[in-house]
Design goal:
It is a single chain. By secondary structure, the chain is α/β, with parallel strands linked by helices. Helix 8 links the parallel strand 4 and strand 5. It is globular, with a radius of gyration of 19 Å. The N and C termini lie far apart (42 Å). The protein binds indole-3-glycerol phosphate. It catalyses: 1-(2-carboxyphenylamino)-1-deoxy-D-ribulose 5-phosphate + H(+) = (1S,2R)-1-C-(indol-3-yl)glycerol 3-phosphate + CO2 + H2O. It comes from Triticum aestivum.
Length: 329
């Protein structure tokens, strides 16, 4: 079956489910998605939990908070205003192109270096945290792109950090590392200077991903679509227009990190991925040149690294330690 035909068929199935009154969570569950939405952004968490029980894991908890946060953001900056400022933002930089070029130039996976202060699994990673200083050090030492965490509650990041890094004159393309559940966040990310956004397959239905990809395309943003397991990989490979897939070695539900996840998924799907010209990013839990070599041999063209860089006294110098050599621009 032609890809387009299959795509239309999948859309039709999902639309039919909508029309038959299936809830968002039922549709998601049909696709193997375990994360539920409460869809009650005006309710208190106590009311939500009375209805749905406690969140089943940390990712679900983050998403429930995010739904409320997005509603608050929308009330502060209505969608039409955010769309307008996204339209006025300076043009995007080519995130995909920067990764492909750096991979070719250095002969090792391109680096997406993450500006990360804290995480729910590791707590605070760095006390004296200056996002601009860290971003500039990463750029100076050969990072191809940067990832800026914007979630405040769990990662102590902010959209302000993203904007500050952009305004400080950093030239690397910037990934907005956010838990996107609504299109408003994509326009907002662009308005604040993002060149790419993360879309997490574990929380988004196929139709969500397709709609968000379309918005990204309109805005010139690259989408990094994150998968963690076989089912998510299969879903994402069935969607047209995907350029970049991130394989997260860390489960966002259990925090277990296992770099062999990248290898297993690429053993099975590497050929299909190469045929489509998709670049793969190995994400999380990479600390040594051996770790980088392992995911490189598995077939990744880029790596996304936070903790092992940000924890060292000089995160820029740490890059040569991670790759076993200096990276050049
Ligand atoms: O700090 P690490 O283990 O190098 O991981 C970086 C990055 O992969 C991780 O922060 C991450 C990957 N996917 C995410 C989704 C949301 C928040 C964070 C992430």
């Amino acid at each position: 079956m032609e890809a387009l035909e299959r795509d239309q068929m999948l859309n039709a199935v999902e639309l039919e489910q909508w029309e038959s009154g299936k809830s968002v969570n039922d549709i998601a569950a049909c696709q193997g998605i375990r994360i539920r939405r409460h869809c009650r952004p005006a309710a208190s968490m106590a009311e939500i939990e009375a209805e749905m029980g406690a969140p089943r894991n940390i990712l679900e908890k983050i998403i429930w908070d995010k739904e409320i946060e997005v509603a608050q953001g929308l009330a502060r900056s209505p969608l039409n205003e955010v769309i307008e400022s996204a339209g006025k933002a300076p043009p995007t930089r080519d995130f995909y192109g920067a990764l492909a070029a750096a991979h070719k130039r250095n002969g090792v996976p391109a680096l997406i270096a993450e500006v990360k202060k804290a995480s729910p699994s590791r707590g605070v990673l760095r006390e004296n945290f200056d996002p601009v200083e860290i971003a500039q050090a990463y750029e100076k030492h050969g990072a191809a792109c940067l990832s800026i965490l914007t979630d405040e509650k769990y990662f102590q990041g902010s959209f302000e950090n993203l904007q500050k890094v952009r305004k400080a004159g950093v030239k690397c393309p910037l990934l907005c590392k956010e838990f996107v559940v609504d299109k408003w966040q994509i326009y907002y990310a662009r308005a604040m200077g993002a060149d790419a956004v993360l879309l997490i397959a574990a929380v988004l239905t196929d139709l969500d991903i397709k709609c968000f990809l379309r918005i990204c395309k309109e805005l010139g943003l690259t989408a990094l679509i994150e998968v963690h397991d076989e089912r998510e990989m299969e879903r994402v490979l069935a969607i047209n227009g995907v350029q970049l897939i991130g394989i997260n070695n860390r489960s966002l539900e259990t925090f277990i990190v296992d770099t062999s996840n990248t290898k297993t998924l690429l053993e099975k799907h590497g050929d299909a991925i190469r045929e489509k010209g998709i670049l793969v990013v190995g994400e999380s839990g990479l600390f040594t040149p051996d770790d980088v070599a392992y995911v490189q041999n598995a077939g990744v063209s880029a790596v996304l690294v936070g903790e092992s860089l940000v924890k060292q006294a000089d995160p820029g110098q740490a890059i040569a330690g991670l790759f076993g050599k200096e990276l050049v621009h």
